[in-house]
TrEMBL record:
Classification via InterPro entries: CutC-like, CutC-like_dom_sf
A Pfam family per the record: CutC
Source organism per UniProt: Streptomyces yaizuensis
Record SUPFAM superfamilies: CutC-like (SSF110395)
Protein family per UniProt: Belongs to the CutC family.
Domain of life of the source: Bacteria
Gene3D superfamilies: Copper homeostasis (CutC) domain (3.20.20.380)
Protein name: Copper homeostasis protein cutC homolog
């Protein structure tokens, strides 16, 4: 088995996906509308990206900014989106919702994982806004398909969350801490040595892959710099 660290890159379209794969990305997170921190892409966008690259894809299930699933009708729209994406061939997802008190919205999460039955999924940065991170991890521990937490360790980003990330890495294998840690959210190249030394081997970048900002495309050379740094 390879010990290579996982590099996941956010892609908005097929051109992003091609550039990310060319630069050495292992996996893509597919979203739209980064002004809202990433929402569910269309079935058609997924199909174009799936046809353009051959690396794994994880598709965001989120229709509004923030970490609330919204109303009953909003949840029904999410379920329909998941069903359409599954029909198009999507087989891995990114999701995660909190209630108004900062606790996991288990009703919505369980509804969605029933719809994507058998698929792997990431609980995204909602964990960084949770009232109780440890409690959230233990509550979700036995949900089918959950294999990754995308986290910066804190809502403010990796700079603030680094101590939490290191502490959680030290607990890998304990109940609630068996899912893979994928670090993202203000992640920089200079964070990597300490994270790698702690045994963390999953990294997620968005803006760092786009030298022109979110108005510009993923740059293969920028992704390659991350890949080479991780492989050094």
């Amino acid at each position: 088995m390879s010990n290579r660290a996982v590099l996941e890159v956010i892609a908005l379209d097929a051109a992003d996906a091609i550039a990310a794969q060319s630069g050495g990305a292992d996996r893509l997170e597919l979203v739209t509308d980064m002004a809202a921190d990433g929402l569910t892409p269309s079935r058609e966008t997924f199909g174009r990206i799936r046809a353009a690259v051959d690396i794994p894809l994880r598709v965001m299930l989120r229709l509004t900014d923030g970490f609330s699933a919204g109303s009953h009708d909003d949840v029904e729209k999410l379920v329909r989106a998941a069903r359409e994406l599954r029909a198009e061939g999507a087989d891995a997802f990114v999701l995660g919702f909190l209630d108004r008190d900062g606790n996991p919205d288990l009703v919505t999460v369980e509804r969605l994982i029933a719809e994507i039955n058998g698929c792997s999924w990431t609980f995204h940065r909602a964990i960084d806004r949770a009232a109780d991170r440890d409690g959230l991890r233990k509550l979700l521990a036995d949900l089918p398909g959950l294999d990754t937490y995308l986290t910066a360790g804190a809502a403010a980003g990796v700079d603030a969350g680094l101590p939490t990330l290191l502490a959680e890495a030290a607990r890998q294998g304990e109940p609630g801490y068996r899912a893979h840690i994928l670090v993202g959210g203000g992640l920089r190249l200079d964070h990597l040595p300490e994270l790698l030394a702690a045994g963390i081997d999953g990294f997620h970048i968005g803006g760092a892959a786009r030298p022109q900002g979110w108005s510009g495309p993923v740059d293969a050379a920028a992704v390659r710099e991350w890949r080479e740094t991780l492989d050094a």
